[in-house]
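Hey, resending since the last one bounced:
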Amino acid sequence: MKALFALLLLISSTLTQAVPDALRQSGSDWRQWGSGEMSWFGIALYRATLWVDAGPTAGVKADAPSALQLDYRRDIPRARLVESSVGEMRRLGASEAQLQRWQSELQRIFPDVKEGETIVGVHYPGQGAAFFHRGRLSGEVADADFARLFFAIWLDERSRSPDLRAALLTRPEN
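The structure tokens again:
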């Protein structure tokens, strides 16, 4: 019985750390770092998971690619995703000229998401970002400032969700 329980724990731990298809295709070696739930007035919106380079010095580094996986718990229309992203980047210091450009990029890239779907954003510091929906590339933004401010929505110390930020940045035990 103990062996069966240990096997089940091993399988469930492996499943929760399964690299998303979008990241597997990137050619990099990824490691799950932290994960947490985002909710609004008690309504679960999505589960966020941070992925980092799995090399010998794995961790969250300013100059290394990282990825944010959002597993949606409910349907959210594209317009709402874009509006929320633009609003948060504005709050974090983006200029109106930048936001005008980035809003059209986000409208091009973001889909209407359905409950159970996933969007993965990959941050390439100093270069930009790539976004994947249902495991397929949905678009790229070749703008380092965009990528920095977009991922700051979750990872900056000024994030509106400090508990989620803390969960994402918590070093895994293994």
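The helical segments are 2-16, 21-24, 78-91, 96-109, 144-155, 162-169.

Sorry for the duplicate.
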